[in-house]
Amino acid sequence: MPGGRYRTEVREPDQPDQPLTAAAGTGPAAEQLLELDTREVGPAAALIVTARGEIDLHTAGRLRATVADALTRLSDLPTAGAPVVVDLTDVTFLASAGLAALVAAARDAHSRREPLRVVVDHTRPVVRPIELAGLDDVLALYRSVEDALQAG
Amino acid sequence: MSTVRWVIEVRGQRCTRTLSGAMIPIDAWPSCPGGPAGGPDHRPVPPVDPSTGPGLPAPLRLQIPVDPVAVSVVRDRLRAWLAAQAWPTGQSQDIVLAVNEAVSNAVEHAYLDHPSGVVELHAAATVTRGGQRRVTVVVDDGRWRPPPADDENRRRGIPLMHACMDTVTITAATPGGTRVTLRSHPVPPPTLLE
After folding, report:
1. Are residues B131 and B159 in the same domain?
2. Cβ pair A14:B58 closer than 8 A
3. Which residues partner with A76 through β-bridges?
4. In this complex, is the C-beta atom of A42 within 8 Å of any C-beta atom belonging to chain B?
5. B128 and B176 both lie in a single domain
6. pLDDT > 70: what percent of chain B?
7. Across residues A118-145, what is the average pLDDT?
8. How many C-beta atoms lie closer than 10 Å to residue B143's C-beta?
9. What strand order describes the sheet that includes B23-25?
10. How many other C-beta atoms are found inside a 10 Å radius of the C-beta of residue B103?
């Protein structure tokens, strides 16, 4: 249900007398937890996938699909050598499911011989899991979209 | 990774299996807090001690449905609970990441077996003898199963838990659940954080 709130019952068993509706939490739908947007920039027609929100078990599949779509679009464009840039600057949480999605996208890009560049700033909840998993050696990481676009 | 052990039963003998797949008799691993429920030597894992000491909030207890969207709700609740006790930001983020991985694994794998089931989480803060604070989080998915041999999320998730926490223990627990116990690194009391 796009745009709606996805109701999830999260009970606190310490308060069994409280009605479930009062104790229940509501979780955002996947579209609200993670916003994804793809746009084309510059004469070289690079594609920028901007992610905003949290990348977890619930949302990683959409990131994976969106980047895969962008790589397909890139293959169809006449200009060669333009990258897909995945901008994670506004991501506030990155879980292992998100790391797996990024690695799968990098593999996909490699097999298509298309450049995939990932932008992360100093946001600790994003940088830390990437570093802990050793993916700073696997992913092409940049500090800004400008840097990623200018890299050759 | 050496502290991650799965307790399984092989021809009536309780064994642990390391992540690499090696089998170790349970007796060779004395720190194992429990075996499969109903086994002759089964010792239930004791519950986390309730929070004690000034400035510590009541334990956080949640029951969540086996549903991927519920994991984000757990993160929100846990963040708020840690913020209410002025947990240092970096340490708090590490705890949230580790718990996210444990709950995600529980939800993902429980879904295959009992999609109407419930995953339980119990988080409590304690004061160490040295006056520092720790958080211990227990995630119990209500049903024991051996770990899948090849699972990418789990393969990445369990090392993240270890990197973010002081200790990580994965056991079979009564009454038949897979229990992950995450113990954070100690942090100073709130008054010393300034």
Report:
1. yes
2. yes
3. none
4. no
5. yes
6. 59
7. 94
8. 16
9. B5-10, B13-18, B23-25
10. 29
B37 and B60 housed in the same domain: no
Domain holding B16, by residue range, is 1-45
Domain check: are B38 and B81 in the same one?
no
CB contact under 8 A, B61 and A9: no
Residue of A nearest to B121 (CA): A12
| B70 and B36 within one domain | no
Q: What mean pLDDT is predicted for residues A56-72?
A: 95
Give the pLDDT band of residue B193 (cuts 50, 70, 90): low
ipTM: 0.83
The answer to whether the predicted template modeling score (pTM) of the entire model surpasses 0.90 is no
Residue B156 touches chain A, beta carbons under 8 Å: yes
Q: How far apart are CA A37 and CA A52, in angstroms?
A: 9
Each residue's pLDDT tens digit, A5-62: 344 455 555 544 433 332 334 456 777 899 999 999 988 789 999 999 999 999 999 9
- Which pLDDT score is estimated for A10? 57
How many beta-carbon contacts under 8 Å exist across A and B? 98
Give contacts of B90 with chain A, Cβ < 8 Å.
Answer: 124
- If you measure CA to CA, which chain B residue comes closest to A55? B72
Does B96 share its domain with B178?
yes
Which of B64, B67, B72 to probe by mutation at the A interface, max A CB count within 10 Å? B72
What kind and span of H or E run contains A96? helix A96-112
Distance CA B1, CA A1 (A): 41
At residue B145, the pLDDT reads 56
